[in-house]
């Protein structure tokens, strides 16, 4: 059994340790038994722990510690000898490495590195007592001194005596191996990973041996690696893009970027995947070479892809260009222009007549929006910039297209009329779920409408017609639509609409109460007229007072008077203004030869007033009818005209309806395939007049709103320049409509005349508020 050397004999101690180092560093795979390990550890311990230092042998007298005072000499000669031994050992390894090149060199280097670092940990444990006391005291005494713990010393020696001599060949071999992999060859990636890990391990902080850095890694690998990457992909990309299409190039670039990312994750050091490390540097370099340097070509290829709806290629282009600063900006501009042209083209294709069908118009708008909204979501991942471009383009073609050239407010009007067709009773009414989807689609278009006040006016009038005429398909659907408008524009925008629904509900209760009263009187000989009434708030409903006088037929006067008394008893302070032009009736016939059961005529109140006269006679002159009904020619002629056109009455004298002394006979031979015949139809001239009146009301309201906004702003600001005032007015009103600057100027002049505001003396472009 081997004996421990005397503790005070350095030569014997070092000889004993040297044989152990040789075994550990060169033949560790043969094994190191516990006894041998313990003897080596004890030799270091005994030498360092002896009472007085021994004189170092001349062989070991050189080194950093030979000038230290006697108090601290114990361990210095041992540390210096170990350092010299490691140097000699590494020179041998380095000399042998010169026999290898490329991949063989990497295999040799990693094999020696792994053997060396494994052995170094064992050596560090054997010299633990030296670390714990002598090394610690040396470091604490002078941190600038070239002293490290034994394991760090082994790495310092590798860096000085091995790496600094072979790094050129090693790094060159690594880069060649990576290039072979890029060219499609299968390589041993562990070689690259081992080299990278060794470089990170060599990053030592010379001021603090407990810390490390990436200096060696960055200097010897990162910089040349990134440079080689740039050269490789610059050459490849320039060649590939000249020989292939843009879609093919994008696929190639996408594959290459994914490969580099996978390469980093596979064999680069984990610290390199931090944002400020090689991961961002390398990928950024690849993005510059593969994407940024060819961005003009990619941008130019965008139009062809979107023209042919190549969603996969568009998504690939989006993901590539999103990698570089401002790479998507030109795409957003091109996308906006394309969508705007598509929308304008869609409207031009349907604009072939004066009367554009509201459904066709809105469907065309929605089809364009739906198509490109799906494109934004799938090809552009819903990116906010593309969403904004879509919104801007839709705002343009919704408000300024071929149809809107005839009337700038045509879009909101047609949208309101399309909504009316959905909410009105008809044979094609959609199911509840489908109707809700259609209403949501209307709100999609509504979002882009600039003149929301125009929509409000038309929607309000059409809602009033549906409610008054009883043609609304569903109370729930009406409430749902108003709720959507309220969510989009606020309470004020829909307050009157909501009140209209409330009036309908209150009128229903009022009718039930009145019918109970009528039923009681009928049982005692009262009227048998089925009478329904709507009591509507004058301030909420867009209904005009009648423009004509009207004598109610005797058949309904009694019921009319009874309701007047009934309502005054309930609400003594209120006055009822009857809107006979909005009333309707149903009349049952019993005079026709061709029908045993008779027909039911659905008529207006004015038509009812005409037809009930024929209970007393079968022929009347125009003057007779006008005298009995008290209607003006403007009201009587349309009512008579429809009855004559439907052949309910026959014009026997006179050339046209309304002629003086023209005569109207009851047609006993009237026939119809329908049992219920609707004669209460608005004439086109009436519809146009109503639309013109609506537009006039809108213009009047806008003038009031602009004046109110100007006064409100000036009251708050007190003094304001002309340009700033106009900008503020536009900003405040743009949620309802887009005011024209010329109209704002006119309103300012009106307020100047009314002395709400005045010009400042010496500053004609500045206004002040007059309290």
TrEMBL record:
<dbReference type="Pfam" id="PF10557">
    <property type="entry name" value="Cullin_Nedd8"/>
</dbReference>
<dbReference type="GO" id="GO:0031146">
    <property type="term" value="P:SCF-dependent proteasomal ubiquitin-dependent protein catabolic process"/>
</dbReference>
<dbReference type="InterPro" id="IPR016159">
    <property type="entry name" value="Cullin_repeat-like_dom_sf"/>
</dbReference>
<keyword id="KW-0963">Cytoplasm</keyword>
<protein>
    <recommendedName>
        <fullName>Cullin-1</fullName>
    </recommendedName>
</protein>
<dbReference type="InterPro" id="IPR019559">
    <property type="entry name" value="Cullin_neddylation_domain"/>
</dbReference>
<dbReference type="GO" id="GO:0051301">
    <property type="term" value="P:cell division"/>
</dbReference>
<dbReference type="GO" id="GO:0000209">
    <property type="term" value="P:protein polyubiquitination"/>
</dbReference>
<dbReference type="GO" id="GO:0031625">
    <property type="term" value="F:ubiquitin protein ligase binding"/>
</dbReference>
<dbReference type="Pfam" id="PF00888">
    <property type="entry name" value="Cullin"/>
</dbReference>
<keyword id="KW-0132">Cell division</keyword>
<dbReference type="GO" id="GO:0005737">
    <property type="term" value="C:cytoplasm"/>
</dbReference>
<feature type="domain" description="Cullin family profile">
    <location>
        <begin position="410"/>
        <end position="644"/>
    </location>
</feature>
<dbReference type="GO" id="GO:1902531">
    <property type="term" value="P:regulation of intracellular signal transduction"/>
</dbReference>
<dbReference type="InterPro" id="IPR036390">
    <property type="entry name" value="WH_DNA-bd_sf"/>
</dbReference>
<dbReference type="InterPro" id="IPR059120">
    <property type="entry name" value="Cullin-like_AB"/>
</dbReference>
<dbReference type="InterPro" id="IPR036317">
    <property type="entry name" value="Cullin_homology_sf"/>
</dbReference>
<dbReference type="InterPro" id="IPR016157">
    <property type="entry name" value="Cullin_CS"/>
</dbReference>
<keyword id="KW-0131">Cell cycle</keyword>
<comment type="pathway">
    <text>Protein modification; protein ubiquitination.</text>
</comment>
<dbReference type="InterPro" id="IPR036388">
    <property type="entry name" value="WH-like_DNA-bd_sf"/>
</dbReference>
<dbReference type="GO" id="GO:0019005">
    <property type="term" value="C:SCF ubiquitin ligase complex"/>
</dbReference>
<dbReference type="InterPro" id="IPR016158">
    <property type="entry name" value="Cullin_homology"/>
</dbReference>
<dbReference type="InterPro" id="IPR001373">
    <property type="entry name" value="Cullin_N"/>
</dbReference>
<dbReference type="InterPro" id="IPR045093">
    <property type="entry name" value="Cullin"/>
</dbReference>
<dbReference type="Pfam" id="PF26557">
    <property type="entry name" value="Cullin_AB"/>
</dbReference>
<dbReference type="GO" id="GO:0005634">
    <property type="term" value="C:nucleus"/>
</dbReference>
<keyword id="KW-0832">Ubl conjugation</keyword>
<comment type="similarity">
    <text>Belongs to the cullin family.</text>
</comment>
<keyword id="KW-1017">Isopeptide bond</keyword>
<keyword id="KW-0833">Ubl conjugation pathway</keyword>
